[in-house]
């Protein structure tokens, strides 16, 4: 099957209602969740490309992120399951198999940058809900009482201290590394469909504040960018180079490549995609994304960014659109990001003192 070019998706999907997705936390309103880029990031987000550290002016930055991300119609499907029986419940379980996850994210961040180095201190609170559906014919209809479908809620809280360095290594080429020290807290609860009471409290499970396990971890990321020609550049990132298993999530290295084009002095277009799939907290399933973004410098003081991202989580592909507005003066940066979605869409704000 021929795949639709991602730039075409940017033009078509950005005007449509899009299902939200789970992405790396877009701290400092920097990342593909809000229409930007990971490979060609702003140099603030510790989830971005370390080679881009130094792209933003030296200063001190504060960030806040909050909102829900869900597979399409996940909330209404869960509600339908609770109010259905017999063949209707079987149909709802089939729908849930195609929309099995939801996530609430809240994050806070501080970053200090100078020249081509950065210090970041962030806290991310990730509440994930993942369904495992039993579609065995014997466990549907009259057999619903023994249906093995489950909902697993995971609360993962991580406090990260990041030290990054990115700098030109020769004309047109930049490289960077980021070392992360992480303190993780995690807790899980599982509800069985057969008891009926578990799924009725799905939203309460998603809002859980309980963690029971603790661990320390290190993370190492790297990145490169290089100019191919005037106004044309390539980039690559590698996250979690030191593979680390966190409870049931096996976080192996993930590689991402991108292309950026300058369309005149005001417009940049970026296309990028993960080269391989990998698991990331809080879901023990592999994920892989591809993105397109358009960056338009309205003036020296204002920049508008628009983009779409398609993500594959396990066997389900979902798409979302996001946008960011940046306002910059000689001493301040204000940035606001929004991701189109259902229920409580993702939103973010950044304040920078330059």
Tally the helices. 4
Unreliable spans are 1-23
Strand sequence of the main sheet, in spatial order?
A: 1-2-3-4-5-6-7-10-11-13-14-15-16-17
CATH topology: Porin
Beta-strand residue fraction: over 45%
Q: Name the helicity range.
A: under 10%
Walkthrough of the structure:
The protein has 354 residues and is mainly beta. The chain has a single domain (6-353), classed as monomeric porin ompg (Porin, Beta Barrel), CATH 2.40.160. Helices cover 10% and strands 54% of the residues. It has 4 helices and 17 strands. It has a 14-stranded antiparallel barrel with strand order 1-2-3-4-5-6-7-10-11-13-14-15-16-17. It has a two-stranded antiparallel sheet with strand order 8-9. Helix 2 runs antiparallel to helix 3 (86-98). The chain is elongated, with a radius of gyration of 21 Å.
